Amino acid sequence: MNNSAPPAANVVDWTHNGDRVPLSLRWLRMECPCFSCRVEQTSERRWIPGRADDFVATSIDQSEGSIEIVWASGHVTKYSPAQLQASFEVVNRAKLDTHLWGGGDEPTRFDHDAVCAGGPDRMDFLAMLLSEGVAILTGTPSIPGQVEVTMAALGLPLRETFSERVHDVRVDPAGYNIAHTAEGLPPHSDYPSYTHPPSGQVLHMLENDCEGGDSLVVDGWQAASVLRETASHLFEMLISVPVGFRQYSSDRESFARQPIVRLDPSGGIIGFRYSNQLMQPIAPTDPDFEDWLDAYLALTDYLTNPANQRRFRLDGGDALFVHGHRVLHGRSQYIPNAARHLQDCYFDFDDVLATSDRLRGLARAKPVAAAS
Ligand SMILES: [Fe+2]
Ligand SMILES: [Zn+2]
User: Fold this and answer.
1) Separation of 48 CA from ligand 1 center, angstroms?
2) Residue 59 sits in a domain of what CATH number?
3) For residue 370, is it within any domain?
4) How far is the CA of 326 from the centre of ligand 1 (A)?
5) 367 CA distance to ligand 2 centroid (A)?
6) What is the mean pLDDT of the chain?
7) Taking residues 41-68, what's their average pLDDT?
8) Range of the domain at 11
9) CATH classification of the domain holding 129
10) pLDDT digit string (tens) for 110-129?
11) Are residues 69 and 183 in the same domain?
12) 71 with 217, same domain?
């Protein structure tokens, strides 16, 4: 049925999966898929909105899921059902489907070669990393520099920091932080001393023959969520009081001052930075200091409680992946009586989500053809 009518309202009703969806006229103009408004080769927007009559419709035709709108400017916008569907897929992208956890079993292990080969194993690995913020690859070749090869195979570009691109962690009397000793490392996130710390980290154990030195991870988002439910006034301190973090070496410096927990505009937890060893003093005269410290103590009590951690041993060939804005990592003290060598580097968690979307068919390689 062809239903042509002058626009009576500023929305067009569209049926999507059996549901009535009111589409804003202005939205329909903004997203016009035609190859005058978009560069055909890339689907990028060419049209720049701005003229007063850009959004004034003079007629609207709807037929079997398609929509055709003539605008006062003379421009014609046509949507096929497939193009409307594609716009809806974009709206639903970049949403993490997370499963928060408090303690539990060892992180799930995946075979390095199978994941690097792609296919369902790659999708399962990425899905686990997105959901739980932690996963392990086993059978990673114990070759220095391998972690860079593995990341290239996974299509995950490295994020560089002030230290080496691939960073060696072993006992080093000249090392600039506690990781270069045999001391235990309480749960922490790396480089909270950047305003935007690396959001992904991979720790590749090449060899681990020492006694002790078991690994642990803890879900910072779960810790913050528990505090939010049980002591909301303390949670408020974590999202509002900026804290300085500093990491430095003999010739490099990094320093950022940010709250420990970061929220998205709708209040969801999207960022967590925590490093007791790198934290700097806040002003003792800060009127929030006492309440903030209560929050920090409650948070630290949660994070350091073994009941809330997942503990395991990283053997040679294991590569631990963590969401750096969510899952904290640490290790127990070890006796440096044998070889222990780990290499780690950073990546951007956005690339994990985008790679997963592409494998799931949510990210289209080409634009949906314009309606004719
Ligand atoms: Fe670390
Ligand atoms: Zn157009």
Assistant:
1) 45
2) 3.30.2020.30
3) no
4) 13
5) 14
6) 92
7) 91
8) 3-91
9) 3.60.130.10
10) 999 999 999 999 999 999 99
11) no
12) no
pTM, two decimals, is: 0.92
CA–CA distance, 216 with 330 (Å, rounded to integer): 5
CA of 18 from ligand 2 middle (Å) equals 27
Ligand 2 centroid distance, CA of 17 (Å): 25
Identify whether 363 is part of a domain.
Answer: no
Work out the pLDDT band at 260, boundaries 50, 70, 90. Answer: very high
- Residue 360's pLDDT band, with cuts at 50, 70 and 90, is confident
Last residue of a domain, one of 91, 126, 160: 91
- In this predicted structure, the answer to whether residue 96 has a pLDDT above a threshold of 90 is no
Listed residues: CB within 5 A of ion ligand 1: 190
Percent of the chain with pLDDT over 90: 78
